[in-house]
Design a protein that fits this description.
By secondary structure, the protein is of the alpha+beta class. It has 3 domains: 155 residues, Beta-Lactamase, CATH 3.30.450; 104 residues, Helix Hairpins (Orthogonal Bundle), CATH 1.10.287; 150 residues, 2-Layer Sandwich (Heat Shock Protein 90). The protein is 59% helix and 18% strand. The chain has 10 helices and 12 strands. Strands 2-1-5-4-3 form a 5-stranded antiparallel beta sheet. A 5-stranded mixed beta sheet has the order 7-9-10-12-11. A hairpin with a 2-residue loop joins β3 and β4. α1 packs antiparallel against α3, α4 runs antiparallel to α5 and α7 packs antiparallel against α10. The protein is rod-shaped. The chain starts with a helix and ends with a strand. Bound molecules: adenosine-5'-diphosphate. The site of adenosine-5'-diphosphate has 22 residues, from α7 and α10. The site of adenosine-5'-diphosphate (ADP) has 22 residues, from α7 and α10.
Length: 455
């Protein structure tokens, strides 16, 4: 059964039953009170008749004669009198009424017995009293009007209940729809969510359902974010594979072309050695790429140990390795090292710094300077590589850390780069719990900052 239907009947049925019970109790209570009042009034009436009988007997008037005298007066008021000796009626003011229940005649001195009976579709109240001579006087009064009022109240009550039922049904309908509306909306949105539509928003407020909507919105937002992240990962993996295929294609095509030439063409020794050199160059390029890719995947299965490395030693080694490159390009490398040690993996740090300095050499003009600053600030350790190269645009800064991305493609390729150096640096820094930041001024140069966490 639908929740709205349940709420509808849940309101209607108990309300109508409650109204019915309360109405019945009130009508019956009212009827009892009116009957009680009428009984009291009738007893008073009977008492005054008794007094008059005492008065009449003192004047030697027979009781039945006296009753006969007052009979007409009481008949007009729908009151009838019966005079009993034991269980025999000696005199009565009407023949239309027959008293079947003789129990009422069994009344004690100075007491009254009452009885209500339906005679000929009319209700009568019977009250009996014992006279001084031991006979019993029964007073009967038509109280049908009281029962008619009760019947008319009952009819009014039924009409009222019908009207109340309609009003309650309308209210119950509105209430059930109001309560279930957000639930229905939520259900619709859930269907959308299950079909992969994550752009969902439900109205939020402080009610229980409003809070549920708030959590639902949070949940769908979270799913959307996770989904976007997943799509990003899938996307970047696809880009990675596409780039890798593209990067492999050029050297492999060259190797195939030169090897075919070597096999088929009639070449002199000089040409042969030239083509063999090309083949070696391209093979070296593939090998280099292979090593770098290995490094990237090594990061994912990282099992490296950090130790306190001597930074003087690290910089000496780097300087030594890059000595030739620097002098070939006539570039000065200035080292400002304020760090004694660094908690890191020595091989990886040397690889990362060498990559950055090699890049700086590649983009720098002859006679320019490359400055490396190593220092501690706010409990964090930093290594900066500052160059006077062309700089990197805002847009490219965001992309250079991605694998295979190259800003100056021709120059980069000429230098043997595959666009993997910076993404390797990024991975190395992530492994150390740090990060790589780039600051650049187009036309003036760039600063690559390695930030190490406080260990
Ligand atoms: P590559 O191995 O091709 O140099 P990197 O990932 O190291 O790849 O660098 C990506 C690209 O970022 C390079 O192709 C180059 O165009 C650009 N780049 C790197 N370092 C600098 C720098 N110091 N100044 C300007 N551009 C740079």
């Amino acid at each position: 059964m639908k929740l709205s239907v349940k709420i509808f009947f849940g309101i209607c049925i108990p309300s109508i039953i409650a109204i019915l019970i309360v109405s019945m109790i009130l009508i019956n209570k009212n009827n009892e009170t009116v009957l009680e009042t009428e009984t009291q009034r009738s007893i008073l009436d009977l008492q005054s008749i008794e007094d008059e009988i005492v008065d009449a007997t003192s004047k030697n008037v027979a009781i039945e004669d006296f009753i006969q005298i007052i009979a007409n007066y009481y008949k007009e008021k729908n009151i009838y009198l019966f005079y009993y000796e034991n269980t025999e009626v000696i005199y009565k003011t009407t023949d239309a009424l027959i008293l079947n229940n003789k129990e009422i005649l069994n009344v004690e001195d100075n007491k009254y017995k009452t009885l209500i009976e339906n005679k000929n579709n009319n209700y009568y109240i019977f009250i009996s009293a014992k006279l001084d001579n031991g006979n019993v006087l029964v007073y009967a009064k038509n109280v049908n009007s009281i029962y008619e009022i009760r019947a008319s109240l009952m009819r009014m009550c039924i009409y009222s209940i019908i009207i109340a039922m309609i009003v309650i049904a309308i209210i119950a309908f509105i209430v059930s729809k109001t309560i279930t509306k957000p639930i229905v909306e939520m259900q619709k949105e859930m269907v959308k969510l299950s079909k992969g539509n994550y752009d969902i928003y439900l109205k939020e407020n402080n009610s229980e359902l409003g809070k549920l909507s708030k959590n639902f919105n949070k949940m769908s937002k979270e799913i959307k974010n996770r989904n976007d992240e997943l799509l990003d990962v899938i996307n970047s993996k696809q880009i990675f594979i596409d780039n890798l295929a593209h990067e492999m294609n050029t050297p492999l095509t060259s190797i195939l072309g030169y090897s075919e030439l070597l096999e088929k063409a009639n070449l002199n020794e000089e040409q042969k050695s030239k083509y063999l050199k090309y083949i070696q160059q391209e093979t070296k390029r593939i090998l280099d790429m292979y090593k770098k890719l290995l490094m990237l995947s090594y990061k994912k299965n990282a099992d490296f140990e950090k130790s306190k490395i001597d930074m003087e030693k690290v910089f000496d080694e780097i300087k030594d390795t890059l000595k030739n490159r620097l002098s070939q390009n006539n570039i000065e490398l200035i080292l400002n090292n304020q760090l004694k040690t660094l908690l890191a993996d020595e091989t990886l740090i040397i690889m990362c710094l060498s990559n950055l300095i090699k890049n700086a050499i590649n983009v720098s003009n002859p006679e320019s300077k490359i400055i490396v600053n190593a220092f501690k600030m706010n409990n964090k350790k930093y290594i900066q590589v500052v160059d006077q190269g062309p700089g990197i645009s805002e847009e490219n800064i965001k992309k250079v850390l991605e694998p295979f991305y190259r800003v100056d493609k021709v120059r980069s390729r000429k230098n043997g780069g595959a666009g993997l150096g910076l993404s390797i640096c990024k991975s190395i820094m992530e492994m150390h719990g740090g990060e790589i930041k780039i600051e650049s001024d187009l036309g003036k140069g760039s600063i690559f900052i390695l930030e190490f966490p406080n260990n």
